[in-house]
Every structure is written in C-alpha cells, then in structure tokens.
Amino acid sequence: MPDIAKLETLSQILDLDIHLLLGGQSQASMAVEKVLTEPEAALSVEELAEVAPILSPAQVHAETKKAAQSSEAKTSLKDISPLLPFLDEDMTDEIIGNIHYDSLAELACAAPFLSESQLDALVSKADTSDWEGILALAPFLSENTLDDLAEQCMEQVDEHKLTHLAPFLSEQTLSKIAQKIEDIDLHALGGLAPFLEEETLDEIVNHQLDKGCSVKDLTPLYPFLSSNTMRRLMQHFLRTGDIEGMKAAATFL
C-alpha cells in the first residue's frame, strides 16, 4: 500500500481514477477520495477503519479526533478498537482516556495498546466488581494496581479464580487472599503453590492436616513445602507404615 499522499500523483501518472487504482468503487476508495479532496471533512469511524492502513499514525490520530468530535453519538471503545493497531501509545492513551466504555472486560481489547500508567488510571475509576474484566486485564496492569483490585474483590475470590490471577499478583497479596479462603481445594492449591510464600503454604497445609485431609492429596505440593512440614508428613508415614508415602516424601526432605 503506498502512502495516501502519493495516490493522487500515482493516479495521474497511470491515468487511472483513484477508485480503479484502489481496486474499484468501495468504501475504502471512497474514504481515500474524501481524505484527498475534502481535507477538512471528518471521516466516520467506519470510513477511518477502512483507510487507516495507508495513513501515517499522525494522520490516523488527527482523523480519529475529528471523527470523535464530529459524531453526534458518543464514540465508544468498541467503535474505536479497529483503529488501535494504527495509533502509537501516546495517541491511544489520549483517545481512550476520553471515550466511553461499559466494563473492564471491554477495556481489555485496548489494553495491549495502552501505556501501563494510563491503564492503571482508567481501571482505578472503573467498577471493581467486574471480576472477568480484572482477569482479562491482569497481564497488562502494574502489580500494585492489580494487588489493590484483588484485595477490593477479595470476598468474590475462590481458589480457582485466584489460580488464574496468581502469576500477576505479589506474593504478599496472593498469600493474604489465599489465607482468607475457607476449606481450600487442595487440587487448586497445587496451581497456587509456585506463587505463594512458603510460610503461607505451610500454614494452609498444616491447617488441612489438622482437619484430617487426605495426605495423598498433598503430594503435588511437596516441592514447595518447608523441611519442617515435610518432616511432619514423614512422621505420619512412619506411624501409618506407608512405605510409598515415605518414598515420595524422602526426595524433598
């Protein structure tokens, strides 16, 4: 695709109408002609999405601002999302900061194109009960912002949801939330174990042992437990004569 500024010259050199040069009468060719012949006119968001691949980032930015300002209806994030790959980060921050979106989940489509600081600022003003949105945004948020969100939503969190969030939270926040979960599922705890503080994991496991949990369910946790907790498990196997259990635990003593 040539730069849009060269199309008029190319059409003259080749003695072709711009529409033919672009493959025939289409919404894209009509949008290009509008940009070239009516520079002051605002493109609709739909027209701009067609012509964005052959505009410079600065042109896309300028046309996007014109489209947003001229539209009678409020421009939404859904409307603007097809343009985001053609904008630079500063332009995206400016535009997304001034348009409407309904949920954190909707904001997730723009997250890869926003700066971390702008995304953090937008999320701080949003409805933090949108758990699905928080999960979708987790890879793009700063650790501090995600920690704050997770703590605000702590009552909604179970171990299965927390497993998806664990790689992006600080150890301290993850441990704090995990300790609040009653009767934690030991299979789900295996997914959390690599990200939890050892002290917290020991505390949860020892609590489960005191309640009489099945020791076999703890096997996936062995690589992450302290030597003290592993010794308690070994003492259990010695008392019960469980040779296979001793073999499995011995490697981690």
Report on this structure:
The protein is mainly alpha-helical and 253 residues long. It has a domain at 1-100. It has 17 helices and no strands. The radius of gyration is 28 Å and the shape is elongated. The mean pLDDT is 83.
User: So how many helices?
Assistant: 17
The structure class reads mainly alpha
Mean pLDDT: 83
The biggest sheet, with number of strands, parallel, antiparallel or mixed sense and barrel status, is: none
> What is the β-strand count?
0
Q: What is the gyration radius calculated from CA atoms?
A: 28 Å
* H-E string: HHHHHHHHHHHHHHHHH
Strand share of the residues?
under 5%
The shape, in one word, is: elongated
Q: Between the first and last Cα atoms, what is the distance in angstroms?
A: 64 Å
Taking pLDDT < 50 over at least 5 consecutive residues as the criterion, the unreliable ranges are none
How much helix, percentage-wise, in residues? 55-70%
Short description:
By secondary structure, the protein is mostly helical. The protein is built from 17 helices and no strands. The protein has a domain at 1-100.
